[in-house]
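Q: What does the assembled structure look like for these inputs?
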Amino acid sequence: MTETVVVGTTTWGTTLALLLARNGVETTLLSRTQVERDTFLRDGENRRFLPGFTFPAALSISCDCREAMRNVSLVVIAVPAVTMRRNLAGICDHIPHEAVVLSATKGLEPESSKRMSQVLEEALPSHLHGKLCALSGPNLALEIAQGKYTSTVIASRNRDAASLAQRLLMSPVFRVYTSSDVVGVELGGALKNIIALGAGMADGMEAGDNGKAAFICRGLAEITRLGVACGASPLTFAGLAGLGDLIATCASRLSRNRYVGEQIARGRSLKEVLASMKNVAEGVPTTASALKMARSLNIEMPITEAIDSVLSQGVNPREAIARLMVRPPKPEWDDVG
Amino acid sequence: MTETVVVGTTTWGTTLALLLARNGVETTLLSRTQVERDTFLRDGENRRFLPGFTFPAALSISCDCREAMRNVSLVVIAVPAVTMRRNLAGICDHIPHEAVVLSATKGLEPESSKRMSQVLEEALPSHLHGKLCALSGPNLALEIAQGKYTSTVIASRNRDAASLAQRLLMSPVFRVYTSSDVVGVELGGALKNIIALGAGMADGMEAGDNGKAAFICRGLAEITRLGVACGASPLTFAGLAGLGDLIATCASRLSRNRYVGEQIARGRSLKEVLASMKNVAEGVPTTASALKMARSLNIEMPITEAIDSVLSQGVNPREAIARLMVRPPKPEWDDVG
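A:
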């Protein structure tokens, strides 16, 4: 019998399972098929998504959802946003009544533009709604697997639920803060990818550190405006799940969204870049979703508009940035929502 | 007769003079000696501090302060913090009564820990106090000289003074925002160097992008707390003069403070690193000043304490970071001042 189940066997889910098990928390990584389970057991690692990181003793592998979920106190869900609803349909009947459900997925549901906790509330039975949590922050999975210092935020409207998840995940190299701002933590993780696309464009056109820093900074102001209009706290966007994640994503060679922006600025088409990638760049659909939200809420988002003009209308990134630079200047914060 | 005088012939002053003159603003760069003036005129550039950037036609060189200041509407001061008071003594009698005086110096006065505008108020005649401005932001000088996209903030309690400086400095590659928060803009530029020292340490110990991002993020929260206690607006710290400058400094190979931290984490002593540098690393004295201020205002600054323990007590950076990671976790924003 284990204490925790992790749903999602790509890099992120595997990393979180590793983290829990290294803390001595009895953890089951729920594999999708019997074949996958057997491969994991044979290899003693997830060779496809996280090669080189041996499963700790406290990590079990199972493809029997009912059995794996029995009596667990925490269910961690780390599946792509696009498959969240489908995954929940397969597990929702097996989650114990008292369990805390923690979403570690960054991104919005395509089409609906819903946050993951909104999808959870729609897909899970109501007795689980009171203990939903969301995790986000500057959390490049590979670095966590390598045991490098990392901090994150777990948000919940239920303080006890957040504390339970915090207690299980916290370690001397993984620092967990708690927050009550679920909307902010989820939107921070999703919206920052828009700015990462733009920061990648700045990299691709060799704009320099001044320009990239200003871009990140004004970009954060803009996604904060949208987040606040959606009910988030501005402090969350100034914290690990907003600013922190944004800095890590915009700096890292590992970020897919940054990479897409960089390649476009070097002259490749969006279609060509996306076709060459194994993984989804969540920022592309998120840019369109954010613009839709901004228009309906009457929020000004000039940077997001500029990125969208590059992505969806093929505007040259240099031209898009040049347009941003010559808008009539204002006091720095007069336009804060 | 020129419109603007720039005081300060190191890299930063020369860059600002270039920027103004490229905008077609008739500008005088005030040189310290006749020999320096003659060298500038002969070379057509500042070969020592900004080699390779030819003086534009609108840039004059003078070592006659009285003559240079005659009828100018803007005096830009870009001298090291440590020599600010001495420099002002030499020019204060020549500044026209109606001129706007803009400080572009980042850093606090050593010993007194005063901001540059406080030093200006003490050193300049009172009829000039109403039009003082401070400029700060992610402004690596070399990139500005190269004509790369840059944004900055000019703060003043006098909106017309800030607008005049904005109008003269703004260009399609140099975007100027205005602000009324002089304290915040000045403290952002000074305090961010503390965090840059720590970010350099993270680089030197190869802590990774997660850890560095979390460090920058929590560091910003901490210097914001101090700034707010000193009367600054938290929004300024979330803006170009706080966050923006912090991101550029922590990312750039050009930052001296980041470099100092990196070298210490690689095992060199502070004394040895400082002795090997031509320029001052303002973050070192600023760390001590900030701690003094924090203690007198009863503000908690664990990151600044950790950096100070490395700088002044020779604590190993790894040990200092490890101590930060295991402090009892709190809700992310409960400790905001």
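Chain A touches chain B through 59 residues (CB under 8 Å).
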